[in-house]
Amino acid sequence: MLIRFTIENFLSFKERQTFSLIPGKGRLKSEHKTKSVKGISTLKTSIIFGANASGKSNLIKGINFGKKLILKGTKPEQKIDFQNFRLDKNLKKDSSRIEYEIQHNKKNYAYGFVFDQKGIQEEWLFEITKTSDKMIFERNNSSKNVFNIEYLFSKNKKEDEKQFLKFLAKGTPNNNLFLNEIRTRKVKENVTNIDDLLNVIDWFQNSLKIISPDDKYKEGLKFELKEDEKLLTTYEEFLNYFDTGICGVSLEPIDRKSVEIPDFVLTKIKDELLNAKSENIRATIISGKNTTYFISPKDGEIVYHKFMTKHRTNDSNSEELFDTSDESDGTNRIIDFIPLLMDLLKGDNVFIIDEMERSLHPNLIYDLIDLFLSKSTNINSQLILASHESSLLTQKLLRKDEVWFTVKDKNGATQLHSLEQYNIRFDKQIRKDYLLGRFKAIPRIGNRNKLTVLPH
After folding, report:
1. Is residue 279's pLDDT more than 70?
2. Coil, helix or strand for 441?
3. Exposed (0-12), middle (13-18) or buried (19+): which is 206, by Cβ within 10 Å?
4. What is the DSSP string of 148-172?
5. pLDDT above 70 for 168
6. 25 and 41 in contact (C-beta within 8 Å)?
7. Which CATH number fits the domain 1-213+355-456, given the four candidates 3.40.980, 1.10.760, 3.30.530, 3.40.50?
8. Domains of the chain: which residue ranges?
9. pLDDT averaged over the chain?
10. Where are the beta strands (DSSP E) in 192-280?
C-alpha cells in the first residue's frame, strides 16, 4: 500500500508537496481503511481532481519516474532523464526530491532519494512505525562515508558477506540507485539477509501498477487469471453486469504473424511473460485498430488469441462474433478494466490510473469504484485515480480524506490539498461547491470578448 508520496522540484512541482493516504479523523466509512500495520493504516482509494494542466498527471509521472529508476536504472555515462521545475531560474541548479512511504508484507518503509541530472546525491531506506524509525541504509555523496550500511552488516555477519556489500555499495554508479544495483546484481546468492531491500523492490515491481491513458497500446496490461474457462466467465459476467449488450466472449487462436502489434512490443511482452514466476500471468494488448489480443505462456512457449465478443442475432438461437474494434469506445474501456478489477480484489495491488473515466458513462465509473470498495472489506489493495469526473465528488461514495485537488499558484507551481482541510458537514453536497470554485481546482476561463479572432 502507498502511505504517502512526496515530490519536490519535479515537472510542475516547485516546493515540496505531499500526497497522503493516511486516514483523517473522520469516522464514516471505516471500511475504506486498511487494518493497521505497526500503528499505520491507509485508505483504499483516493481521487485527485483539478483543472487541465494543474498537475494531476505530473503527480502520477513523478510516482512512475521513481519506479522506473528503481527497476530500470540509467545507462552508464548517461544523465538522469527528467525535467525539474522550469519557471524559476533559481531552481535550475537545485536538486529534486522524491520519497515514498509504503506498506508491504506487514512492514512500513520510507524510501527516497535526492537527485539532479548528473546523479543521485542522497538515498535512504528506513523501516518506520507510528512512533519510530530504523535506518536500513543511507547514502550521501557529499559525505566522506558515502554509504551507511551498518544495519545490513548486522544481518550478514560473515566477513565475505560484508565485503560483498561494501563492494556493491562502492560500485554503485553515481547515476543509479542502490536499490537498482541490488536488483540487477546477484546479491541473494552472496549474502544471507537483505529481506527489507528485496521487500521494497518487490512492492515497486509487483504491487505498484501505473496506467496512463495510452499504456495499453505500448506494453500491454499484465494480469493474472488461471484457466481460459475462468477468464471467459469473468468477462461474460462483467460485460453483462455493465449492460453492454454482449452475451458472451471467445478466445480465437491465431499465430504471431496475425497479431497487428509491432514486433518489438510483442518481443518485450514475450520476454516478460516467460520470465514471470507464474504461468497464470497473461497480457492483454490493443492494436491501433482497437482489436484486443491475449498473450500467455504455455509449456514454455507463447500462445496468441484474438478476443472476440458474441451478440445474439434476431434468431435468438444463433450468435455473431464481433471483433473488439467493432465495439464502442466505452465497451472497450470496460474490457480494459475487468482484469484490473480482478487484480485489485486479489489483494496486495496498488493501481494508479490517469483518466480512468475516459469514454465511460459517469454511472459506470462511479459503480466501478463503489464495486471495488464494497468487495474489498478484508482485502488490502488501493485504487488511486486522477479524474475530471465531478459526479464522483460525493460523500456518498468517498470520505473527505479520499478527495484531493491540484491547483496551480500564481507562479505556475502545482499545490496539493485535501478536502479534509475544509470544514464541510458529512451530508453536504460538495460537487456544486467544486464547480463554483470553492476548492480552487477548476479552470480559470478568460473573457470571451477578448477573442479578437472570432467574428463579432
Report:
1. no
2. coil
3. middle
4. E-HHHHHH--SHHHHHHHHHHHHTS
5. yes
6. no
7. 3.40.50
8. 1-213+355-456, 215-346
9. 87
10. 208-211, 221-224, 248-254
